[in-house]
Amino acid sequence: MSVLNSVPFEKYHGTGNEFFVVDAEDPVPDRPAFARTHCDRDAGIVLTGSDRRGADGVLFLALESRYDPPRVVMTLVQPDGSVAAMCGNGARVAAAWAAERANTDEIMIDTPAGTRRATVDGNEVNVEMGIPSFDPRDVPLESDDELVEGEVEGLTVTAVNTGVPHAVAFVDDVDDVDLESVAPSIRHAPLFSEGANVTIASPDGEGGFRQRTFERGIEGETQSCGTGAVAVVAVAKRLGLVSGDDPVSVSPPGGALSVTVPDEGTALLGGPAVREGNGEADIVFRQR
């Protein structure tokens, strides 16, 4: 491994989902190596005054302020070096980062999953998440049929794409599930041709849901997953557990998110995006 120079970064989190943010104008030639090195939870970057190393991914953001509203091109490189098509919490972080620089409260976010509109009010960010799809071609599935409450590796799941694929299971209590043991076999099940995030949910007793997600590309549970929160509500509507167009509270371990999945139109995800600090990160190349 050779160190060429360093690049400035900022660290943000959305309900505990942590990201390093790098301005795309600062060149990082080997983005996968950069993410694998610095996101590592045992040996990655740690901010001064923090005891938590690494992150759940690196957001490479390119602000294009000449547009009205301004646009930000978002590329999320995950800790395993892969690129995620969409990330709800990451999109909210991208919107907060771009809105501050463009001095605006409305941002268009260009992602591999499509363009999403976001509005920013202080630390609170709401972002359009597209229309959830159960179509087996969109998830995608190695099947011609939708997967709705089907058994996969011992868990009853429903498959939906909310920008990325999710296998969603409703359980009595999310705390009773050993997610790190249960999820990997579902995440890698042959039925999911590109793999899947594994999300479990249980009613919170107040009309909302508690959520836990094992994320593809991180290969472990995260404190929050925005696409997973949208998946929970989309599947809950499909199964008749909720109805209507009102926002639903979904609470992963890192905090509460607001999710709206209307009968028609795009889903919405709302919650905080918080800047934690900044620093300098070595640009590294993995010798092959």
Automatic annotation (TrEMBL):
Name of encoding gene: dapF
Its biological purpose: Catalyzes the stereoinversion of LL-2,6-diaminopimelate (L,L-DAP) to meso-diaminopimelate (meso-DAP), a precursor of L-lysine.
Source organism superkingdom: Archaea
Reactions catalysed: (2S,6S)-2,6-diaminopimelate = meso-2,6-diaminopimelate
Species, as recorded: Haloferax mediterranei (strain ATCC 33500 / DSM 1411 / JCM 8866 / NBRC 14739 / NCIMB 2177 / R-4)
Subcellular location per the Swiss-Prot or TrEMBL entry: Cytoplasm
Keywords, in A-Z order: Amino-acid biosynthesis, Cytoplasm, Isomerase, Lysine biosynthesis
Pathway as given in its UniProt record: Amino-acid biosynthesis; L-lysine biosynthesis via DAP pathway; DL-2,6-diaminopimelate from LL-2,6-diaminopimelate: step 1/1
PANTHER family the record matches: DIAMINOPIMELATE EPIMERASE, DIAMINOPIMELATE EPIMERASE, CHLOROPLASTIC
Assembly, per entry: Homodimer.
Protein name: Diaminopimelate epimerase
InterPro entries found in the cross-reference section: DAP_epimerase_DapF (IPR001653)
UniProt record, GO biological process: lysine biosynthetic process via diaminopimelate
